[in-house]
Amino acid sequence: MTSCMSGLNNDTKFILSEGLQQLKNEHPPLLKMLDNLLSISLKIEEKEQMEENFTQLREAVVDFLAQLGPHSDREEGVLFEMMASYIGREMGPIAVMEYEHDQAKRFIGTFLQNTENGTEGFTESQMIQNAELIKNANYTLVSHFAKEESILFPMAENMLSEEEKQELADRIKII
């Protein structure tokens, strides 16, 4: 393993500890859900069965958020806290990760707030604008997950002690 951060991205033999691997393993199902959200959003943008797809989008967003929430809690409440004790959180990787979490949650939260009374009565323009929020959340999170996997998780693997890695694994199991 190289000590240079740029070397982390290219090391295909890099093995993550149990807790970090669990966090990484949570990404593919979330990415699959994000892909579905993007697909529905694009159909709305293309004005394809808009009312039907808009209703479907809201349901899919609620389902996605139910899966994203615990994953986000494990990262923010455990991993980010542990890493922040070493590298701080005001700037650098943790600041970026938290910003991206907040940004994605804002996009999703705005969409859910806008549709909290149902999906009927929206104009085509309003449906497209709301679908755009979900597209933005998608783009934010897809990029975010890639950064975690290529930079943050390997950094944590190098940074945390064996005891801390075990603590991470134990703590995220209960969330």
Structure description:
The protein is built from 7 helices and no strands. It is an all-alpha fold and 175 residues long. It has a single domain (17-173), classed as Four Helix Bundle (Hemerythrin (Met), subunit A). Helix 2 packs across helix 7, helix 3 (27-45) packs antiparallel against helix 4 (50-87) and helix 4 packs antiparallel against helix 5 (93-114). The two termini are 31 Å apart. The model is unreliable at 1-12 (pLDDT under 50).
Structural topology:
Elements: H1 5-10, H2 18-25, H3 27-45, H4 50-87, H5 93-114, H6 124-159, H7 162-173
Helix pairs in contact: 2-7, 3-4, 3-6, 4-5, 4-6, 4-7, 5-6
Quickly describe the structure:
The protein is mostly helical and 175 residues long. The protein contains 7 helices and no strands.
SS class:
mainly alpha
Name of the top-level CATH class: Mainly Alpha
Determine Rg (CA atoms, Å). Answer: 18 Å
The major beta sheet can be summarized as: none
Mean pLDDT: 92
Strand content: under 5%
- What's the β-strand tally? 0
Number of helices: 7
CATH architecture: Up-down Bundle
Low-confidence stretches: 1-12
CATH superfamily: nmb1532 protein domain like
